[in-house]
Design a protein that fits this description.
With 285 residues, this protein is an alpha+beta fold. The chain is built from ten helices and ten strands. Helix content is 42%, strand content 22%. Strand 5 and strand 6 (61-66) form a beta hairpin.
């Protein structure tokens, strides 16, 4: 992996929202043949190419990318990308995630197998990205602009799929994500998802994992850890109460799950958080 050459890079870590979280924004004018990877990222990273061109390699599948196009790196996918030797690209990127991210990207026609799209009109899309870049210290402004950005991405995507019967799968995925975001503090079984969607268990698990990179149960556990991290930042809330608040009757089971996802116990996380140190999850939705 080569050294990075940033023009601008703002680490934001606005990660307390259920629908969309924003972690980073930056711009980069790459030197000839500049490359990055192979790497596996935890969250989504979207690049808009101002000019130039390059090549994206996802799981050994090649996708050429040029001026006016967007390419997206999905979580938990081995990625490598490289600027062209003669006409290297110049791009702006967003590092984001959240329950709505999958839905909005799908509406725009972006998936793990179709990570590149051309914009019919990118003027307003770029404007919203630049607004975030210029107002990076204003959290609410940035999150609001991110929603506007996705609106433009969906409306102006040349790859936006027509609504067909098979797209009903997206409604099942959304139903599960919405169910988790409301019911995560209650006992939830995979059978509850089956009953919710009326689908066969193995089929439901497959389409959910294709869309998110996680099984429904993995997504639930990761979502609970995310919500627990927010609660642990308050030193007046006991570990036992945190466990109960995210669906664990047994504090030991909660601690075991939390450590699996973060690499440390809830108590250790709380201590580091009090020092202003944010610990990213090892894996998550």
């Amino acid at each position: 992996m080569e050294n990075r050459h940033y023009d601008i890079c703002h680490f934001l870590n606005y990660n307390t929202y259920n629908d969309l979280n924003l972690y980073e924004i930056g711009t980069q004018k790459c030197p000839p043949s500049y490359s990055y990877g192979p790497v596996v990222r935890e969250h989504y990273i979207l690049h808009y190419v101002y000019n130039g061109k390059g090549m994206l390699n996802l799981n050994k599948q090649l996708f050429p990318v040029q001026q006016g196009e967007v390419f997206v790196l999905s979580p938990n996918v081995t990625t490598f990308y490289q600027a062209d030797e003669q006409d290297p690209w110049n791009y702006i990127w967003l590092h984001f995630d959240g329950a709505k991210a999958v839905e909005y990207l799908r509406e725009a026609g972006i998936s793990r197998t179709h990570p590149v799209l051309h914009m019919r009109d990118s003027t307003t899309l770029i404007l919203h990205m630049q607004e975030i870049l210029q107002n990076s210290t204003d959290e609410l402004y940035c999150i609001g602009s991110l929603y506007h950005f996705f609106q433009e991405l969906v409306v102006n995507s040349s790859c936006r799929p027509e609504i067909k019967m098979q797209d009903a799968r997206l409604s099942y995925i959304k139903a599960i994500i919405d169910y988790i975001s409301v019911k995560y503090h209650e006992p939830i079984r995979v059978q509850d998802f089956v009953n919710l969607c009326g689908l066969e268990r193995s089929y439901l698990t497959r389409i959910f994992k294709e869309a998110t990179g996680h099984s429904p149960q993995e997504y639930l556990l990761s979502y609970r850890v995310k919500m627990a991290k927010n609660l642990l930042k308050n030193p007046e809330i006991s570990i036992e109460y945190v466990a109960n608040s995210v669906g664990y009757v047994d504090p030991f089971a909660f601690s075991k799950c939390f450590k699996k996802h973060t690499g440390m116990s809830p108590t250790q996380y709380r201590e580091l958080s009090a020092q202003g140190i944010e610990i990213p999850a090892i894996k998550g939705p």
